[in-house]
Specification:
Strand 1 (2-5), helix 1 (10-22) and strand 2 (28-31) form a beta-alpha-beta unit. A 5-stranded mixed β-sheet has the order 2-1-3-4-5, sandwiched between helices. The model is unreliable at 31-38 (pLDDT under 50). With 191 residues, the protein is of the alpha/beta class. Helix 2 (41-62) packs parallel to helix 3. The protein is built from 7 helices and 5 strands, in the order βαβαβαβαααβα. It is globular, with a radius of gyration of 16 Å. The two termini are 13 Å apart.
Length: 191
């Protein structure tokens, strides 16, 4: 499994922590920085597709299907990105799973601690997170409650019941990051 994250800190730390929590060793977490373009969703999806295709070619040339990724996931925020709609289309076309958080990925982190059902912006989410994570600066810390992923998923599904599959945008607030957590959990169980 390959997970490509828009963010370089919080998302990567979170999914590495989930991978370790479930002992899902065949899960690779990467952040994708597109120099000169920022971190736009279409670039994230394009990078993930290229990485998947590269591994597929390597698997074929070495005649070892275990080299290829079973699943490919991308993680992006809504932010003010102009390429989000394009990324959704490219993810569908390229058979990549795109997870979208509105207004930001930190909403998913907040759901590990409390509900958030009213529309909000990034700053409001971060203020609320700081109540639970003193001095929050995008790093999660060693005592982050990864075990709360189930209640976080319930909160996310209550906030936007329609946001239950990849490759779509939800309302404000919404995240379907729980889909990746479930995929990583399944991956750990299958080992």
């Amino acid at each position: 499994m390959l997970v490509v994250c828009e963010g370089a800190v919080t998302e990567v730390e979170y999914f590495e922590g989930v991978r370790d929590h479930f002992r899902s060793l065949p899960v690779e977490i990467r952040n994708c920085k597109v120099i000169g373009l920022g971190r736009d969703p279409a670039a994230i999806v394009g990078y993930a597709i290229r990485e998947r295709d590269k591994k597929d070619r390597e698997a074929r040339s070495q005649r070892d299907a275990n080299i290829a990724y079973d699943e490919v996931w991308c993680v992006v925020d809504v932010d003010q990105h102009k390429t989000l709609d394009q990324a959704v289309v490219e993810a569908r076309r390229g058979h990549v799973n795109l997870v979208v958080s509105m207004p930001c990925f930190e909403l998913w982190i907040l759901y590990h601690f409390e509900d958030c059902a009213a529309p909000c912006d990034q700053e409001r989410v971060r203020q609320r997170l700081k109540k639970h994570m003193k001095g929050y600066d995008k790093h999660l810390g060693r005592d982050f409650p990864f075990t709360n992923h189930e209640i976080a998923g319930e909160r996310a599904r209550r906030a936007d019941p329609e946001h239950c599959e990849p490759n779509r945008k939800g309302g404000n607030p919404s995240t379907n990051a729980w889909l990746i957590v479930e995929a990583i959990r399944r991956s750990g169980r299958n080992r």
